[in-house]
Protein: Adenine DNA glycosylase
Organism: Hymenobacter elongatus
Amino acid sequence: MYAGQKVPIQNVSPCPVSCSLANSGHKGSPLFWFCNTFCTIHLASHFFFKHLYIKVLPLSVLTPTHPYFAPALLEWYPRHRRDLPWRHTRDPYAIWLSEVILQQTRVKQGLPYYLDFITTYPTVQELAAAPEDEVLRHWQGLGYYSRARNMHYTAQQVVREYTGVFPGTYSELLRLRGVGQYTAAAIASFAFGEQVAVLDGNVYRVLARVFGIASDIAVPATRKEFQALADTLIPAAAPAEFNQAIMEFGAIQCTPLKPDCLFCPLQSHCYAFQHGMVQELPVKSKAKASRTRYFHYIVLRHGETVYLKKRGAKDIWQGLYDFALTETDTAELSGLALADAVTALGGQLATDRAEEPVVALRHVLSHQKVEARFHCVWLEQPLPPAALNTSGLAPFTPSEAHELPKSVLIANYIDKYWK
Ligand code: SF4
C-alpha cells in the first residue's frame, strides 16, 4: 500500500469475474453494487488465502508489480501516439534539446522552436560555439530564459568535459547543468535504453489516478513515492517505449480536465474511475498567489539612437535586453519623478520635442504580473560615456535593437509602437 492511497485495492490480484461484471453495470446499479461487494470480499480472500490461489491463477497475475499496466500502455501507444520529430531519433543531443524546450511548454508551442534549434545547431558543438545572445534570440518567446542559458552552458560543458559526446547513463547525465531527474531519465531511456522511469506532470496524473495515490504532488518529498512506484512498473524489455507511452497517455487520454475514461484500457484497474475520484486526483496544493510589479521603462532616444541594457542576475529575464527601468509600488510615475530619473541616468531632456504618450502593456508570468509603462524620452544630447558606464546602457540603432534578445514584453512594445 502506498502512503497516500485510500484503499490497497491494486496490491492484490484483480478478480477476473466480478471486476468485469461490475464494469458492465452502471455505477450505483444493483449489479454494480453486488459485483463490487463480491469483489471486495474476493480481494480480501486473496490476502488471507493467496497460497491457495497461486496454484490456479495465470502466471502473469502472480508477478508482483501490476502486470496489466505496462502491456496496456504499450498496446495503446502505437495506435495513438503523435508523430513528433524527436521520436524518430536516438541521438541524445536531439532528445536533450527537445526535453529542454518542452519543459513547462506545450508540444504545439515548442515544436517550431525545436525545429529551429535543430536546424540552426545540428550538433552540440555548433550550439556550444554560438554566442549566448544569438541563442537567447532563437529562444525568444518561449519564456523561462534560464532554461536557454543553462542549455547553452550544458552544450559547452558536454564539449569541454565529455569531448562532445553525451554521457550514457542516468547518474552521469545528472551531473550536467540544468539536467534534473526527469531530463536525465528521458535521455537515459530514450537514447540508451536504461530502465529508469520518467516522472513529469502527465505521469504523476496517470499514477495518482490509477493507483489511488492522494499525496500532494506539489510537495517535493512525494516524488520518491511516485518514483518508487514507477520504477516497479517500467519493463526491462521496453523502457523507452514505456516512458514515451505513459507520458503520451497522460497527455492525450488521461488529461487533466476531460480524461477519456470511457475508452480507457486501464478503466477496470483505475482507482479514481472506480471510486468516482477522477477530478480529485492528483492532489496538488495551490501555488503561491502571484504578485503584481510595476515597471516604468524609460526609453531614452536621441536621433537614430536608442539606449538599452542587458538585464543582470537575480531577477526575471536575466541576460535579455531592455530599457532603463524604475520599479515602483503603483502604476503611476509623476512627470517630476520621470525627469529626476532621466537626470540620474546622465540625460538631459530635449526642449524641442513634444511629450510622447505613455504606452501601457501587461505581461503575465507564472508567479508575477508585470504592469509596464513605457515612457519615451528624447534627449538633447547623446548620453556621455561616464553615464553609459554607470547605468550599463549602450547605444543601438532601432534595427540593431530589433535583433537583440528581448522578453516578449519588450519585443511587443518595439514591434507595435516604434515608428
Ligand atoms: S479510467 Fe480515466 S482516470 Fe483512469 S486512467 Fe483511464 S482515463 Fe485516466
About this structure: The longest helix spans residues 30-53. The two ends are 65 Å apart (CA to CA). The chain has a mean pLDDT of 84.
